[in-house]
Specification:
It is a single chain. By secondary structure, the protein is α+β, with helices and mostly antiparallel strands. It has five domains: about 70 residues; about 100 residues, PAS domain (Beta-Lactamase, 2-Layer Sandwich); about 110 residues, 2-Layer Sandwich (Beta-Lactamase), CATH 3.30.450; about 160 residues, Histidine kinase-like ATPase, C-terminal domain (Heat Shock Protein 90); about 130 residues, Response regulator (Rossmann fold, 3-Layer(aba) Sandwich), CATH 3.40.50. It is built from 21 helices and 23 strands. The strands form four sheets. Strands 12, 13, 14, 15, 16, 17 and 18 form a seven-stranded mixed β-sheet that branches. Strand 4 and strand 5 form a beta hairpin. Helix 10 crosses helix 17. The longest helix is centred in the middle third of the chain and has 54 residues. It is elongated and about 170 Å long.
Length: about 700
C-alpha cells in the first residue's frame, strides 16, 4: 500500500462514526429507520474509501514491479521469495541462469532445494533467533553451467504473519570480493608478521634508533635498551642541533668521520644522487681508555618520497677488540713472513750463485775442450760430464724456483728443444743408472721424427727417465727397448715413447693401485707429469714376463727436418765470424772470466776481462768503444746493477749491457730488464743463448 497515513485516517474516521452512532443510539431510537440508513451509508463510504486506496496501491505496485524486474534481470544478484508453508517459490529473478548457472525454467522446487538445503544455509535458518533481520553466509559454490568453483554470498530475510512464513533470499556472486579479501588478509597478516619480526630483530640487534626527516631537518632519538644511554636522554628536535650533541659523546679522533657521514648535507646528497644503499660508520664513545666503547651506526634510507632516514646503532666493542687483536697478530705474522721470505730469497740466491758458479766453470771448460782435438774416449767422458752437469742444473732450477716452493706445485715450462739432444741426454743418464747390470738397453728413434719441437722437454725427459730407471730397477736380465715414434698432424706431432722390459712384471691388483695412486716416486711421478702435460699413460704387464709403459704427448713442430738428416756437429752452425768486434767481460771470479772468454773464442772477436765494477767504470771512461758489455751481477763493492746505473750516468754512453747471473729465481729476469739491462744470460752460459745475444747486439751491427 503506497500511503499508509491515508488508510489509517480513513479507518479512524470510520471507527469514530461507528462509535458516534452507538453513543447516540438512544437519541435516534425513536427514529429507527433514519438511523439505520445513516449507519449503512457510513459503512459503505468507509468500505469504498478502503477499496479505492487498495486498488490505487495495487496499480502502483504493478508499475514498480515491472521496473524492479527490469533492474534485477541485469544485476549480479539473484532474488528469490519463498512461501515456507507450502514450499513454493513466489518470485524468482530471471538472472539466476547467468549468476548461478541454474536453468530458470526448471522446477522451482528444485531450485528451492538447491539453495535452502546447502548445509551451512540450512543450519543458519534452523538456528534463526527471530530477532535478527537476516541470516548471511559466504559459501563456495560449484557453478554447473560454467563448470568452475565460485564464491557466493547468501542473505536470507525470514518474516512471518499469523498463518505463513516467508523467505526473501538474496544471492550475490562474491568471487572477486572473496579473492581480494583473502589476498588483503594474507598480505596484511604477512606484513604484520614481518613487521613484528623486523621490530624484534631490530630491537634485539640494535640499541639506538635515530629517525630523521631530511626535508624538515627533524629527528627522533629513542633507545631500544636503556642500560646504555650512549647519547644522553631520548629526545626529539632539530637534527643539526641533535647531531652536535651526539658528537659531544664521541671520541675526538672519530668525530670528523662521524659528522661527514651523518650530517644532513651528506644524507641529502644521497637522496639527490639516488644512492640509497645503506652504509656504516664505526667509532668510539668517550676519550678515556677505560671507556673505550665501540659503536657501529648503520644508515638506512627508508623513503625516497618523504626523504626519511633511520640510523640504527649497536655496541660492537667485543668485535672491534677482537678484530684489533687479530689485526695485531696478522701484522706481526706478516712482518715475520716478510723477514722469512727475504731470508729465504737471500738464501736461495746465495745457493744459486754458489752452486752455479763452479757448475758454470765445469760446463764451460768441458764445452771448450770438446772443440779441441782430443782422444775419442776422453771426449766421450767429457761429453758425459757436460750432460750430467746439465742434469744437475735442471735439478737446481727446479729446487730454487720460489714459485714452485710457495705453491707446492709443478708448472708447465714450454720452450723449443731438440729431439736428438734430449734422447742423447736420456741415453747417457740411463746407461749411468744401469751400471754393471747384464741388460741390453736399446734406443730406437723413428727416423722421420721432426728434429725441433716446442714443449716442456724437462718434464718429458724426467718422465721418460723415471720409466726407464723403474724398468732397470725391476729387470735383472734380458733387455729394455725404448721405442720413439711420432704421428704428425698439421703443425703438431703426437710424440709416443714406449719402454718395454723383460722384468718381473706387475700384479693386476698392484697395477690398479699404481694407476689410481698419487705417489711421488716412480710411476706416480710419471702420472703427475703426464697429467700436467695433458698426455696419456698406458701400462701393460704380465707377472714374470714383461712390463710395457707407453706415454704420449702432443708437441708443436718448429723444425720439420728429419732426424736422419741431422749432423752431430751442427753445433758449429751457431758460430759466426765477429772479427773486429770488441766485448768487455766483467766478473769477480777469474775462472768465470776464463770460461766466458773461451766460449767467445770461436767468434774471433776481441775480449777485455775486468774483475770489478769499479775497474769497469774507470776503463769505460778511457775507452768507450765496445760493441757489448757482459756484466756479472754478484760482485763485491759495486754489483752489476749499481755499475750499470753509474755507466748510464756517463755522457755519450750507449753500449748495450747484458747481465751475467746465476740468480735464476723466477721473476729476476724481469727485475734486471726493468733496471735497464738490454738482455739476460744465466750461468752456466748456454751456447745457444750466447749466440742469440751476439747476433742481436753485435752481428747485426757488423758492417
Amino acid at each position: 500500500m503506497k500511503n499508509k497515513k491515508e488508510f489509517i485516517l480513513i479507518l479512524l474516521l470510520f471507527v469514530m462514526l461507528v462509535y458516534f452512532y452507538l453513543e447516540n443510539f438512544t437519541n435516534v431510537l425513536n427514529n429507527k429507520i433514519s438511523s439505520n440508513i445513516v449507519l449503512v451509508f457510513i459503512i459503505i463510504l468507509g468500505l469504498y474509501a478502503i477499496k479505492t486506496l487498495l486498488f490505487k496501491d495495487n496499480y502502483s505496485i504493478k508499475g514498480e514491479s515491472k521496473l524492479f524486474n527490469s533492474l534485477v534481470e541485469n544485476a549480479d544478484t539473484v532474488y528469490i521469495m519463498i512461501n515456507d508453508k507450502n514450499k513454493e517459490v513466489i518470485y524468482l529473478s530471471k538472472n539466476i541462469s547467468e549468476v548461478l548457472g541454474i536453468d530458470y525454467n526448471k522446477n522451482k522446487n528444485e531450485i528451492l532445494y538447491q539453495i535452502l538445503n546447502i548445509p551451512v544455509i540450512k543450519s543458519e535458518l534452523d538456528s534463526w533467533d527471530r530477532n535478527t533481520k537476516y541470516v548471511s553466509q559466504m559459501i563456495e559454490y560449484d557453478n554447473p553451467k560454467y563448470n568452475y568453483q565460485m564464491w557466493i554470498k547468501v542473505k536470507i530475510f525470514p518474516f512471518e504473519d499469523k498463518n505463513n512464513k516467508y523467505y526473501i533470499i538474496e544471492v550475490l556472486d562474491a568471487t572477486k570480493d572473496h579473492e581480494r579479501q583473502h589476498l588483503l588478509i594474507s598480505q596484511a597478516s604477512d606484513i604484520k608478521s614481518r613487521e613484528i619480526q623486523l621490530n624484534q630483530i631490530t630491537a634485539a640487534s640494535y640499541d639506538v634508533e635515530i629517525d630523521i626527516n631530511v626535508v624538515n631537518n627533524s629527528y627522533d632519538l629513542k633507545y631500544f635498551k636503556f642500560d646504555n644511554m650512549y647519547f644522553g636522554e631520548a629526545r626529539k628536535g632539530n637534527y643539526n642541533e641533535g647531531l652536535k650533541e651526539i658528537l659531544s659523546y664521541i671520541n675526538d679522533g672519530d668525530k670528523d668521520e662521524v659528522y661527514n657521514k651523518l650530517c644532513i648535507k651528506n644524507l641529502k646528497e644521497h637522496f639527490e644522487k639516488y644512492e640509497l644503499d645503506s652504509f656504516t660508520v664505526r667509532y668510539r664513545i668517550g676519550n678515556e681508555i677505560k671507556n673505550n666503547t665501540w659503536l657501529e651506526s648503520t644508515v638506512f634510507f627508508l623513503s625516497k618520497q618523504n626523504n626519511r632516514v633511520s640510523i640504527l646503532t649497536k655496541n660492537v666493542t667485543e668485535n672491534a677488540e677482537s678484530i684489533r687483536e687479530q689485526n695485531v697478530l696478522l701484522q706481526n705474522a706478516l712482518n715475520d713472513t716478510r723477514i722469512a721470505s727475504k731470508a729465504k730469497s737471500d738464501l736461495i740466491q746465495t745457493i744459486s750463485h754458489d752452486i752455479r758458479t763452479p757448475l758454470t766453470n765445469i760446463m764451460g771448460l768441458s764445452e771448450t775442450i770438446l772443440n779441441k782435438k782430443i782422444p775419442e774416449d776422453i771426449k766421450e767422458d767429457i761429453n758425459n760430464i757436460n750432460i750430467s752437469s746439465n742434469e744437475v742444473l735442471d735439478i737446481i732450477d727446479g729446487l730454487i724456483d720460489t714459485k714452485n716452493i710457495e705453491k707446492a706445485l709443478i708448472k708447465k715450462e714450454e720452450k723449443q728443444y731438440s729431439i736428438l739432444k734430449m734422447f742423447k741426454k736420456i741415453e747417457t743418464s740411463s746407461k749411468e743408472y744401469l751400471g754393471n747390470k747384464a741388460i741390453k738397453l736399446n734406443f730406437n728413434l723413428d727416423k722421420n721424427l721432426p728434429v725441433v719441437l716446442f714443449g716442456d722437454y724437462k718434464r718429458i725427459t724426467q718422465a721418460i727417465l723415471n720409466i726407464i730407471n723403474n724398468s732397470i730397477k725391476y729387470t735383472d736380465e734380458g733387455e729394455i727397448n725404448v721405442n720413439v715414434r711420432g704421428e704428425k698432424k698439421d703443425k703438431f706431432v703426437n710424440l709416443t715413447v714406449e719402454v718395454a722390459d723383460t722384468g718381473i712384471g706387475i700384479e693386476e691388483k698392484k697395477l690398479e693401485k699404481i694407476m689410481n695412486s698419487d705417489g711421488n716416486t716412480g710411476i706416480g711421478t710419471v702420472k703427475k707429469f703426464v697429467e700436467l702435460l695433458d698426455g696419456k699413460l698406458e701400462i701393460e704387464s704380465k707377472v714374470g714376463e714383461y712390463t710395457k709403459v707407453t706415454i704420449s704427448f702432443v708437441q708443436k713442430i718448429l723444425e720439420d727436418n728429419k732426424v736422419r738428416t741431422m749432423i752431430d756437429n751442427n753445433k758449429n752452425a751457431l758460430e759466426f765470424d765477429l772479427t773486429g768486434k770488441r766485448v768487455l767481460i766483467v766478473d769477480d771470479n777469474k775462472l768465470n772470466l776464463k770460461v766466458t772468454s773461451r766460449l767467445l773464442e770461436p767468434y774471433h772477436l776481441e775480449t777485455v776481462l775486468l774483475e770489478s765494477g769499479e775497474e769497469c767504470i774507470d776503463y769505460i771512461k778511457e775507452q768507450n768503444n765496445f760493441d757489448l758489455i757482459m756484466l756479472d751481477q754478484m760482485m763485491p763493492g759495486l754489483d752489476g746493477m749499481t755499475t750499470l746505473s753509474k755507466l748510464k750516468e756517463m755522457p755519450g754512453f750507449n753500449t748495450p749491457v747484458v747481465v751475467l747471473t746465476a740468480d735464476v729465481v723466477s721473476g729476476q729476469k724481469e727485475k734486471y730488464l726493468n733496471h735497464g739491462f738490454e738482455d739476460y744470460i744465466s750461468k752456466p752460459i748456454d751456447k745457444k743463448e750466447l749466440s742469440r745475444v751476439l747476433k742481436k747486439f753485435v752481428k747485426d751491427n757488423n758492417n
